[in-house]
Amino acid sequence: MIQTTTDRKWLPLYEALASDVRLNILELLAEKEMNVKDLAQTLGLSSAIVTMHVKKLETGGLIHTALIRKQGGTHKICTLAVSSIEIKLPQFNEQQRAFDEVSIPIGHYTRFDIQPTCGLATADHVIGQYDDPRFFFEPERMHARILWFGSGFVEYRIPNYVLPGQQLEEIEISLELGSEAPGIAENWPSDIHFYVNDTLLGFWTSPGDSGQGRGKLTPAWWSDSVNQYGWLKVIRITEQGTFLDGQQLSAVTIQDIRMSRNEWTLRLEVPDTAANVGGLTLYGEGFGNYDRDIIFRTYRR
């Protein structure tokens, strides 16, 4: 999902959507990946015209393109880059809310219990060996930008900056994540559970371990045949309940969270007892499609 605003930097994306031809291309690519020649034949247009439209869609971040050797020739293969777009419009007279924000690097977990397949990597190399949980204790893990495991959990500790006398209004957590399959698998569901201070907020079923093209930020040394990118999910715990991307996840409210004076804990878990045990991949800065780590915000009055 792309989250946009009315900031002028998003004009290439909005321009990419402002065309019947380009909307038709998006609809075709939703069914299967296609090369420019196939798109041109299906749309009844010249390859030159379709190439121009594809370039605008790529500039807008809506599709990926890659040159692939196939059937004795080189083809420019087009695939969708995102599944949805959220536009946040300016709010009239919206009062600015006070908040504290902590960015948590992927490798800064404080507790874990995981099962293979598993591993973690920095921006330029894999830490230790694949599928050996012992390397999750490796001090170098603090520099990890991506981690994955087949089942179990990782837990993070976050400073609590809400002072006595201040009223906690909302917790917002955003992170890029997906399933963990051996290799990649588009259809590999996983029930990823979210906990704050040991309170279960609910779970989200990740559809798979995506590999339809490389992640936008994937380092050049990273293999094409393993985890590429996930989905950016935003969890909000409010006075009305817990919401995932604006849809209610559970009835857990901010009042239901046991508050510690000094810290919060965030646990991400795929339990063995889940209906879909498809693992978890966490993408941090320099991996996936979003150049960010785990963001933990607390809003207060």
Summary tags:
3-stranded antiparallel β-sheet, Arc Repressor Mutant, subunit A, 2 domains, Jelly Rolls, 4 helices, mainly beta, 301 residues
Could you characterize the architecture of this molecule?
The longest helix has 13 residues, at 47-59. The protein is mostly beta strands and 301 residues long. The protein folds into two domains: 2-86, Winged helix-like DNA-binding domain superfamily/Winged helix DNA-binding domain (Arc Repressor Mutant, subunit A), CATH 1.10.10; 95-300, Jelly Rolls (Sandwich), CATH 2.60.120.260. It starts with a strand and ends with a strand. The protein contains four helices and 17 strands. The chain is 13% helix and 38% strand. It is globular, with a radius of gyration of 21 Å. A hairpin with a 2-residue loop joins β13 and β14. This is Transcriptional regulator. InterPro entries: ArsR-like_HTH (IPR011991), HTH_ArsR_DNA-bd_dom (IPR001845), UCP030050_HTH (IPR016943), WH-like_DNA-bd_sf (IPR036388), WH_DNA-bd_sf (IPR036390). Residues 2-96 form the HTH arsR-type domain. It comes from Paenibacillus ferrarius.
Topology:
Elements (H helix, E strand, L loop, with lengths): L1 E3 L6 H7 L2 H12 L2 E2 H8 L3 H13 L3 E8 L2 E8 L4 E3 L10 E7 L6 E11 L24 E14 L8 E11 L11 E7 L2 E8 L24 E7 L4 E3 L2 E4 L12 E8 L9 E4 L10 E7 L1
Parallel strand pairs: 1-5
Antiparallel strand pairs: 2-4, 3-4, 6-17, 7-8, 8-15, 8-16, 9-12, 9-16, 9-17, 10-11, 10-15, 12-13, 13-14
GO molecular function: DNA binding; DNA-binding transcription factor activity
InterPro entries: ArsR-like_HTH (IPR011991), HTH_ArsR_DNA-bd_dom (IPR001845), UCP030050_HTH (IPR016943), WH-like_DNA-bd_sf (IPR036388), WH_DNA-bd_sf (IPR036390)
Pfam families: HTH_5
